[in-house]
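Each letter names a residue; structure tokens follow underneath. Both lines appear below:
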Amino acid sequence: MMHLSSEAHLCESGFKSKRGAAVMEYIQLGRSGLKVSRLVLGTMNFGSRIDERESHVVMDHAIEQGINFIDSANSYGGVRGSGATETIIGTWFARGGQRREKTVLATKAYQATGDWPNESGLSALNIRRAVEASLRRLDTDYIDLFQMHHIDRATPWEEIWEAFDVLRRQGKVLYFGSSNFAGWHIAQAQEAARTRHFLGLVTEQSIYNLLTRWAELEVLPAARHYGLGVIPYSPLHGGVLSGVLRKQREGTTVRSGQGIWAAALTERHAAIEEYEQLCDELGHSPSNVALAWLLTQDGVTGPIIGPRTVEQLDDAFAALDIKLDQDILVKLDQLFPAPAGSGSKPAPEAYAW
């Protein structure tokens, strides 16, 4: 399949937001004809860290500012339980005002939503049930992008693509994507789709940020080869790239210091400190420089941001105005090297001649 760079997919025209800053850019979603904003609104916090009313306010503001791409999953909801986030999105759609028509809606399935044997994975049965349940909660009759939340090693591709084919013929799902796939999983999926003369995957949602660059070895090259748009999640590595050291000094950090957040601070403390100093010199926040760096990566559609407030959402828009020159990109590579010191080379050149 022909490889097309991110720049080749950028739309010539954009949406002038009410904030009066740069025009929101739109990009083709992989090799599809669908156009999406270069910032993706993530909804994992909806129903867990912010309530329904606040979630609606954030989504309304996102649409007003030109974001048309909203990402969710049937397992999101936190203490309210699986599906709660989709329900919040559904009540937002129900308010009218062309909210559904203006939104490119993405959701996912794979994770267990109950204790019964067929309430997880990617069997034809669970795919059908998961999509029907999501449609009810989302109060819509179609999903723009349905994503496999994880690879299912127990279900053959023939079964998965047949189930997806049925959904597309029914008009319930328009496009399909993957998440947390290895490069060879993408190749498997696309070659299986090719035998059915099916469009196949148009996106891969992967963890990708300055601190976690493993996707560059094989996921990004595979996605570019097969024409998938890459949607990075955790672009700030759980907040580590948001100016966490400064926040610690000011006593404003809200993280618990557990998990990958604490590990990254321990292992990469010097680099993170130098990174924050570099951002100060540039006059931009560390979080927006991290987002701007992702937007320079070939094949990246747009990072997923997960604001809890309108103020956090507005702050993220500044990343669209940041232009990182080659000297800064080299400096960032020095601070946060590509995997195994590969010098940003894809596999197998990263580790072999």
About this structure: The longest helix spans residues 124-138. The CA atoms of residues 68 and 103 lie 5 Å apart. The longest strand covers residues 173-179. Strands lie at 26-28, 35-37, 40-42, 69-71, 104-109, 143-148, 173-179, 201-207, 229-233, 304-305.
